[in-house]
């Protein structure tokens, strides 16, 4: 039997929840104990009674959650006050994005806990099964956001994303054709924008061309190509991902200066440092800033704006892994699955993810060696 704890998220405007009643009921059916902090599900329309009906026990504080649980299931990275509650016996399961957060990396190392990052768990196909649904949501949201901030009352250039007959639609550039990028271009096509996608993979561009044909322009990535298409874009979506590592700075300040004032960039990669030279993290409380005359939207938890959709999607993705940890025990579940093991970023005071170690200058120790 494993004791699992679900604290209430405390990051600014983060209303998602790490586990829903369906997941609680499944874990209880397997004989595991689940503690949920009071009010943890309110942001997605779930109250304590919903969790109790599924078999959860309600804790009055985060301190109680961390004191009772072995496995801590969260959505976003632990804030400093939460890191202070982590102990060597804890297993943390959450989005971490350590390559862009040295303070969190150091605090997790000091805690002695083992921390598994949702975003670096892989699968046999080379995909990112837990990150994928959040990338899909962020990609679709990015076009909603861009359309909104293109409006003149919000500082935009006053362009309707899809235009109407007799006018020119907005020129949307998507950098990266992974989960986030392909969902962004899908939404942009649906709103009848003019869409260009840049990616480094010829095979991926061929796939997109076969799917969308003349509705999109596909461009193989190069600095010259990025500069050319950024200059003509009304919207640029940054959707470039290097799993577990910092995003490359593909768009420079000089490139942005060539854009029409009031154009919009949405940096989906901001969790990993962002792919625009001018990007800096923002929150849903203050989501944008203007740099070089361009509106920047760089919210680090974009799916938190649609917490009900994103929580349910995330819970579906994480539950099989939570069950594996609870049923097989730790570290057996991790050592039995190399794709799951890839999620271990910190273990017992060691950095066990190579990109994070390189980013911050820590010694890299393979997870299997520590576990």
Please, could you describe this protein's structure?
The chain folds into 2 domains: 3-121 and 307-370, NAD(P)-binding Rossmann-like Domain (Rossmann fold, 3-Layer(aba) Sandwich), CATH 3.40.50; 132-305, 3-Layer(aba) Sandwich (Rossmann fold). α8 links the parallel β8 and β9. It is of the alpha/beta class and 371 residues long. The chain has 15 helices and 15 strands.
Rg: 21 Å
CATH level-four homologous superfamily name of the largest domain: NAD(P)-binding Rossmann-like Domain
- How confident is the prediction overall: mean pLDDT? 97
CATH-defined architecture of the largest domain: 3-Layer(aba) Sandwich
Number of H- or I-type helical stretches: 15
Low-confidence stretches: none
The main β sheet shows up as: 8 strands, mixed
Number of strands: 15
Number of domains: 2
What is the fold-level CATH name, i.e. the topology of the largest domain?
Rossmann fold
Q: What's the overall geometry?
A: globular
Find the structural class using helix and strand composition.
alpha/beta
Q: What's the helix-strand series?
A: EHEHEHEHEHEHEHEHEHEHEEEHHHEEHH
State the distance separating the first and last CA atoms.
20 Å
Using the coordinates above, name the CATH class of the largest domain: Alpha Beta
Query: Strand order within the widest sheet?
Result: 3-2-1-4-5-6-14-15
Attribute tags:
alpha/beta, Rossmann fold, eight-stranded mixed beta sheet, seven-stranded mixed beta sheet, 15 strands, 16% strand
Write a compact overview of the structure shown.
With about 375 residues, this protein is of the alpha/beta class.
């Amino acid at each position: 039997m494993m004791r699992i704890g679900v604290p209430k998220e405390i990051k600014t405007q983060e209303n998602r929840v790490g586990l829903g009643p369906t997941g609680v009921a499944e874990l209880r059916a397997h004989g595991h104990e689940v503690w949920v902090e009071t009010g943890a599900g309110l942001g997605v329309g779930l109250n304590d009674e919903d969790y109790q009906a599924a078999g959860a026990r309600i804790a009055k504080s985060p301190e109680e959650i961390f004191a009772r649980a072995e496995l801590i299931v969260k959505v976003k990275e632990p804030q400093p006050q939460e890191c202070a509650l982590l102990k060597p016996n804890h297993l943390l399961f959450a989005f971490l994005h350590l390559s862009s957060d040295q303070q969190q990396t150091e605090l997790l190392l000091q805690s002695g806990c083992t921390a598994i990052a949702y975003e670096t768990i892989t699968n046999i196909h080379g995909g990112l099964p837990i990150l994928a649904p959040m990338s899909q949501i962020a990609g679709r949201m990015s076009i909603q956001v861009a359309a909104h901030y293109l409006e003149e009352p919000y500082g935009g250039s006053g362009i309707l994303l899809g235009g109407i007959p007799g006018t020119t639609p907005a020129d949307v550039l998507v950098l990266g054709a992974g989960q986030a990028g392909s969902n962004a271009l899908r939404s942009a096509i649906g709103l009848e924008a003019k869409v260009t996608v840049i990616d480094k993979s010829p095979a991926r561009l061929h796939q997109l061309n076969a799917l969308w044909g003349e509705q999109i322009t596909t461009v193989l990535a190069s600095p010259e190509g990025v500069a050319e298409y950024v200059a003509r874009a009304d919207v640029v979506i940054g959707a470039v991902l290097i799993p577990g590592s910092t995003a490359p700075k593909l768009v420079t300040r000089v490139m942005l200066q060539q854009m029409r004032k009031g154009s919009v960039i949405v940096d989906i990669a901001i969790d990993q440092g962002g792919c625009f030279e001018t990007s800096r993290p923002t929150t849903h409380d203050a989501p944008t800033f203007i740099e070089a005359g361009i509106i920047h939207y760089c919210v680090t938890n974009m799916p938190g704006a649609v917490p009900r959709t994103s929580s349910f999607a995330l819970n579906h993705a994480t539950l099989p892994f939570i069950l594996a940890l609870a049923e097989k025990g730790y570290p057996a579940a991790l050592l039995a699955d190399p794709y799951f093991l890839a999620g271990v970023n910190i273990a017992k005071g060691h950095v066990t993810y190579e990109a994070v170690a390189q980013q911050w200058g820590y010694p890299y120790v393979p997870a299997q060696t520590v576990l």
